[in-house]
Amino acid sequence: MIDRLTEKIRETNAPVVVGLDPMLSYIPSAIQEKAFEEYSETLEGAAEAVWTFNRGIIDAVYDLIPAVKPQIAMYEQFGLPGLAVYKKTIDYCHEKGLLVIGDIKRGDIGSTSSAYAAGHLGKVQVGSALIAPFDEDFATVNPYLGSDGVRPFLEVCEKEKKGIFVLVKTSNPSSRELQDLECGGKTVYEHVAMQVAEWADTLMGKEYSLVGAVVGATYPEMGRALRSMMPRSFILVPGYGAQGGKAADLAGFFHPGGLGAIVNSSRGIIAAWKQEKYASFGEDGYAAAARAAVLDMIADIRSAVR
Amino acid sequence: MIDRLTEKIRETNAPVVVGLDPMLSYIPSAIQEKAFEEYSETLEGAAEAVWTFNRGIIDAVYDLIPAVKPQIAMYEQFGLPGLAVYKKTIDYCHEKGLLVIGDIKRGDIGSTSSAYAAGHLGKVQVGSALIAPFDEDFATVNPYLGSDGVRPFLEVCEKEKKGIFVLVKTSNPSSRELQDLECGGKTVYEHVAMQVAEWADTLMGKEYSLVGAVVGATYPEMGRALRSMMPRSFILVPGYGAQGGKAADLAGFFHPGGLGAIVNSSRGIIAAWKQEKYASFGEDGYAAAARAAVLDMIADIRSAVR
Predict the structure, then answer these.
(1) B2-304 falls under which CATH superfamily?
(2) pTM (2 decimals)?
(3) Which of A135, B15, B42, B278 has the highest count of CB atoms within 10 angstroms of its CB?
C-alpha cells in the first residue's frame, strides 16, 4: 500500500489527504432534515446525514487526491449506525480508487492489539473462513504501551502489505505535556521516533517503509528533525489549516522532490462552505466548496514543497 | 458511578472485575457450531457465538461481582456485528445490575476525544434529541496526547457522573519502553500519575474520584508507590492471573480496609474451562467453570487484601 500511496501521490502531484471527520454542524441543514425525515432524530438519522454528506465530498474530490483519512471517533460517536457508515465510507472510497487511512489511534497489550490489527488491516478467522472486517489500507497506532502493542500491527502489515502511522508528535497544544518530556537527553517523542525508524527498517516497500509516523504540522521545527530521524518513513501530517499549520512550515516534513509526507486537512476542506472565503458556494454547494478548498490546498502545498 | 462501584464492592466484598474479552478459541465448539449453522462462517456467526458465550458467563457470575470490563477490541475485530454484540453485552450487564467498564483505551486531540467521550460515556445531540450511543459506566483512556485529549472525558464524567481510568502503567512486558523512561527524576508514568491526581481532585465522588488509573498487577512495587501518588483515585488492576500477577502482589494497590482498587481477570475466568484445574466442568460447563474461577479469585484476593 505504501508503494500505491507513493504512486498515487506522483500521479496526482498532491501529497494531500482529506480528513473525513464529519460533525453534524458541518452538514448542511437540508441534508440533516431529509435524513431526520426518513429516520427521525436517531443515531440512524445522524448516520444517514453523515453518509449523504460524505458521498457528496468524495464525489467532488476523489480525482484530485491519493487518499482520505476518516476519523473513526466521528462515526463511533453515533454508535452502531455511525460505525456502519464508517465502513460504507471505506468501501465507497475504495470504489473510487482512493486509499483509506483509518484514523483509529488504537494500541493495547499484545493480544488485544492483534484483535485491532486483524479487525482493521487484516483478516479474522471465523471457522474456516478468513474475513476482512473493516479493511482500511493504513491505520494510525498509539505507542503508549510499547512495542508489544505495536508488533501485532507490524505482523499484519507484513502479511497484508498494509501500513501504519505511529503517533510520534501530535498536533494538539498539550501534546508537549507527555511527548516533550526530556528523558536521557531525548524527548519521549524522539524515543518513539527511534523505535519507528527501527521498525521501519524491517518492513520496507520499494522506496518507503510500511511503518510511518504522525507528526503535527503545528510543530515544523520538530518536523525537520523527525524527517531525518525516520528517513524511510512516510510522515502523516495533521494540523494544517484549521489547526494553524501553514504550507511554509511543511517543507521540512518532505524529502527533496516532494515525497515522504502527506498532509491532512479535515475541517478546512469538508466544512469549507462555512468559511467566508468559500461562502459564495452556499450550503447546497458544500461539495463544490470542498473541491475548491482542495485545489487551493494543493496549490498552497506545491508552492512550499518542491 | 464511582459511588455505586464502591457500594457494590462493599456489598459483594469482591474488588473483582471480570474481563469479557472473548476470543473464538475460548468459546466451546458446540456454541460456535450452532452459531455457524444459523449464520454461516461470517462475522454475524462469530458475533452470535460471542453473544451466546457472554450471556452464559454473565448469568453465571453476575451475583458475585460489582462490574465487568468488556475489551472492545475483541468485538471490533468482528466488525459491525461484533460491535453490535459489544453494545448488547453492555445492555445485558446493566439489566443484571452490573457496572460496565468499557476497555476502549481511546484518546485523541480535543474535538475528537469529545466525540469518543460523548459516544461512550455521554450523549450525542441529533437534532433536538440527546442519545447515549454505547452508555458504558466507565471507560479507559490513553494519555499520550496530553490533557486536552483527556479533558473532554472529564467534562462528560462530571455531567453524567461517570468515570474514567487513565492508563498510567500497563501490565504488558514492554510497557517499560515508554512508560518507564526517566524524565527529570520521574518516570513518564509518574508524570501521568501526577496529572491523574490533579484531575482526580477536581472531580470527587463521596470517597473516591471519578478519575481513576490503570496500573498493572505485574508491577506490584509500582502499585504501592502509585497508590500513594493518587490517593483519591480508584486503581483498575489488569494482569492478575493469566498475565502473571499474584494476589500477594496486590495488597499495595489497595487502601487499608480493602477499597481503592479493583482487580481484573479475563482469560483466567472466561476460559477457565480450558485450565486443568477446572477441566472437570467440561466444555458444556464453561459458565460453571467461570463461576468457580471467580469464587477462587475472590477468595484469593480476600486472603491478601484486608
Answers:
(1) Aldolase class I (3.20.20.70)
(2) 0.97
(3) B15
